[in-house]
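Good morning C.,

I know you're traveling, so I'll keep this short. The sequence:
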Amino acid sequence: MASQKAQVVLFLDAKAVDSLQEGINFKRSPVNDKSYIIYKNRSSFKACKNQCKHQGGLFIKDIEDLDGRTVKCTKHNWKLNLLTMKYINPPDSFIQDELEVELLDDGGLQLVELNPPDPWMADPRECLVLKEGEVKVTYLTHACMELQLGERRFMFDPWLIGPAFARGWWLFHEPPADALDRLCAADLIYISHMHSDHLSYPTLRVLAERRPDAPIYVGDTSRPVFWYLEQSQVKLTNINVVPFGVWKNVDEHLRFMILMDGIHPELDTCIIIDYKGHMILNTVDCTRPNGGRLPKGVDLMMSDFAGGASGFPMTFYGGKYSDSWKAHFIKKERKRLLSYKAELVKTLEPRIFCPFAGYFVEAHPSDRYIRDTNIKNSAEDLNALINILRPDTVTWTPQPGSVLDLGLCLRDHTNREAIIFPPARTKMYKDSWDFHLYLDELSSAISSEIFRHKDWIQFYYTWAGFQNYNLVVRVIETDDSFEPMSNGWDYLVDFLDLSFPTKRPEREHSYLELKNRISVMRYVVLHGCLWDDLYIGFQNRISRDPDVYHHRFWNHFQTKLPVTRPEWDKFLKRCCFIIVECLTT
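The tokens, ready to paste straight into the viewer:
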């Protein structure tokens, strides 16, 4: 692999440096046509890319900032203090990556970025002609694709049965009848990240029963993808963690490389498949895969498209969060996502593009409000936009069981055999989901012995390990309609000192009110699950004062909880000891 190198991304001569004003300066580079921000503080300089780390929006000057130190993102109004390079809205979230500022002897300056070479360029292979039927891509459901690559079968993100995010997401498409058989026969399985619409334990339980040694590959994320494996009691014995940016050779013709996401390196990954010099890029859910650097002109690119994979704003109430405000916001955000994906395809110029990984539905009757509110993009709309912006790219809107023959499609996409659709009477959409089977499992947590003892609250949040943050959270256990339950817990947690007051403190503080469905909240607590099940799964309702996103809080409970569950056996023994002691005194 080639070593890292320094790249000059922007040069200013002495005259241009002298013209820099005190405070914020926006400059565009003639080298790459990208925008940069230079912050001048007397005789010193700081610099960064003009790109928000949240979702890649451009910054503008913040007219509310009288000190001239803050810029505001045009996407979601995130604010960055250029003096500290810290985001101040939301507070305690990201730190902006700085560029090195080199002052030149002649009075000029240059901005330098350390860039490793694009790792897929290492050891390039000759592109060989593909025979008909040699490479076939079969769409199964959601983010699950099966790739036939010569004699090998490679499967992506098998979510084939059961819900995701507790009980909030259900499959929209009906997988082919033999989908589980295909999974169990796969030569390689790639799981992009730990979210349950990609890592589905109900699905993998079937795999473990039939073929526990099936080879599974995941990226080397900071939180292990399979952190919950032991707790799940799913017995898989051949999980392989692959370092980022390195080719993994499978045979003479097949290799793959896993890349991290630039926005969520602790969580998301994407993958490049190389078969006989033909590249397939699957960016899955990555916000900025590989920091935005991706191969151009791949033979097939696959990406998510739908949006709606968040509780915001559907689960929020109070203040501005009326139904009309939510509808306007969702419509605007879906349009932005559609435009971003289309522009990405235009930039990367893949020969074929397929939108997938967005086919879920809030199917349970109790989530009717979310289903009606959480309007998603359609694959057809994205492909229509791509056909305008990038007409040379062939677009494929997949249906369950449809097959793309890569070799035929590259030679002549109008060939009727290039894309085979399922028979006309094939069932496309699910209309039953075995709700009771999975909801009964969640509900079993409600009667757990631990919830009879009030001290479980302190024990759990001490285990969670989040404190020294000026936030007070009220948690209310509710029924399916988010009405408080008479026998449910209703408590406050003060995360400044990890105390549990009976009323809100008099000091100035931020406040969250969380109404959580009792079955899901107790299941999450009992098993030490991440709070994605609550937030992404639409299993709570949220009010906040002030209306500010608390990145540190949510990031901790969604990605940084301990990887081992709370020691509830030890907790119950301690409770019994206390009860006995009280009875004997």
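Safe travels,
E.
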